[in-house]
């Protein structure tokens, strides 16, 4: 389980702290490319990838009920919702 989520490195990464106190860091670009909202899914279907130009930063993190968070990015993408289990999976992948 996740106990804390916060932006770090001036929005360049997301830090996740597990209930056991272990900290994980996910780069903002990794999060942006992993977005599973409808627009990002459509881009993957049409182009095979999500197009992101330039450096991307996290501009806001908002809770979505008790299930996850909405992360907004400097490229204007604001619809990405990351359920906690998906964030945990991304964190473990980034840790390898």
Polypeptide structure, described:
There is one protein chain. The chain has 96 residues and is α+β, with helices and mostly antiparallel strands. The protein has one domain: NE0471 N-terminal domain-like (2-Layer Sandwich), CATH 3.30.2020.30. 29% of the residues lie in helices and 36% in strands. A 3-stranded antiparallel sheet has the order 1-2-3. A 3-stranded antiparallel sheet has the order 4-5-6. Strand 5 (68-73) and strand 6 (80-83) form a beta hairpin. The relative contact order is 0.22.
Task: Please describe the structure with a list of short key phrases separated by commas or semicolons.
6 strands; alpha+beta; 3-stranded antiparallel sheet
Give a quick rundown of the structure:
Helices cover 29% and strands 36% of the residues.
Write the layout of secondary structure elements.
Blueprint: E1 2-8, E2 13-18, E3 23-27, H1 28-33, H2 38-47, E4 58-64, E5 68-73, E6 80-83, H3 84-95
Antiparallel strand pairs: 1-2, 2-3, 4-5, 5-6
Largest sheet: 3 strands, antiparallel
Total count of strands: 6
Q: Strand portion, in percent?
A: 35-45%
- The structure class reads alpha+beta
Shape: globular
Tell me the strand order in the biggest sheet.
1-2-3
